[in-house]
Amino acid sequence: PEILYLRDVFAAISIAVLLLRPLFVHRRVDLPLALALSALALHGLWGLVLGLPAFQVGFGAKIFMYLIYGLAMWPIVQSRWRGLLKVAGLIFVVSLLGVGANYVPGMCPWEGIKSDTSSGAVTTTRTWWQGSTARLPGFARNSISAAILLGVTGMLTMVWLRQPWLRLVSAGLGLMAIIATTSKGMVLAFPLAAAWLMVGRGTRHARIGAAMVLALCSLGLLLPIVMVFFGVGGGLRAKDWPILILSVWQRFSDVWPAAFELLPDGLAALAGTGLGSIGTPQSFGLRPHLANPGDSLAIFMLVNFGVAGALYYLAPACMVRSTSGRVPDSV
């Protein structure tokens, strides 16, 4: 099971090579990559200052390393768009088949199997339910991962397919599979993105897409703040919510308020609680009983990085138009 963590070694080596190669070959520094790594290091140092154990901070660095990895790999991916779309299409088909195969028996033979390793128990696939409804993981490690794979590769597959009817079929199959995972975020996001891909092209179309991304990111940032600090979530009752989206109420009334309580007191809260201060890394800290899943990228950013986290969260949305403008017209 430890072989799973070779992916982290591969990502770390790739980042190191892509950072050092321009320095030794061209005598220049990849400034965006260097700044991102420096910011991550500073947030890690802040976590240590606040008393987080080094392993907890390191685990947090492991999680956010993949954002740095994406930044480092972007120029390479940008020059190989057609290949990326073909690979995404293959992953989309495999993910569809996985959820479909999972739906028929209700549970795959390997689900829930655990192995004891030197670093603790490792589960092959997480088995869980929303009420009496199974959350289907397909071939992924959990239903959330399956939904993300379906959503992201489904969008790229629709870009690859030129005929509108093929795009419509892909969107329909993708949405049905995502619903089977019961992952609410992707159930909401996928139809919006799919509808945008189905309608037109051109400059106006790109402007609408950029506005949609910025609006959704702004909503994702403001929603937990409004729910917690304006007391909106506390007035909602569990029985008012359908069972399939009951976890939304749990976020509003319990998870998000508890997440903000992890922040330090006073002005120090503006800098966040430091790298690895929320989510799985808490299991390796001094207060595992306060472990909080966050269940929101915005919450993760705000708790780990404070005000800077809000800027990190919104920056990609603000840059999406200039970035998409460099994508080849053939794509």
Description:
The structure is a single chain. The chain is mainly α and 331 residues long. Helix content is 63%, strand content 4%. The strands form two sheets. It has a two-stranded antiparallel ribbon with strand order 1-2. It has a two-stranded antiparallel sheet with strand order 3-4. The two termini are 38 Å apart. The mean pLDDT is 85.
Number of strands: 4
Q: Order of SSEs, N→C?
A: HHHHEEEEHHHHHHH
Q: Which blocks of ≥5 consecutive residues have pLDDT under 50?
A: none
The number of helical segments is 11
What is the 3D form?
globular
Q: What is the residue-averaged pLDDT?
A: 85
Strand content: under 5%
How are the strands of the biggest sheet laid out side by side? 1-2
Q: What structural category do the secondary elements indicate?
A: mainly alpha
Report the helical percentage: 55-70%
Radius of gyration (Å)? 21 Å
Q: Report on the biggest sheet.
A: 2 strands, antiparallel
N→C terminal distance: 38 Å
Task: Write the SSE topology.
Layout: H1 6-25, H2 31-49, H3 54-78, H4 81-103, E1 114-117, E2 120-123, E3 129-130, E4 133-134, H5 143-160, H6 164-181, H7 184-198, H8 203-229, H9 246-260, H10 297-305, H11 307-324
Antiparallel strand pairs: 1-2, 3-4
Helix pairs in contact: 1-3, 2-3, 4-5, 4-6, 5-6, 5-7, 6-7, 8-9, 8-11, 10-11
Entry keywords:
11 helices; 4 strands; two-stranded antiparallel ribbon; single chain; 331 residues; mainly alpha
Can you give me a brief rundown of this structure?
The protein is mainly α. It is 63% helix and 4% strand.
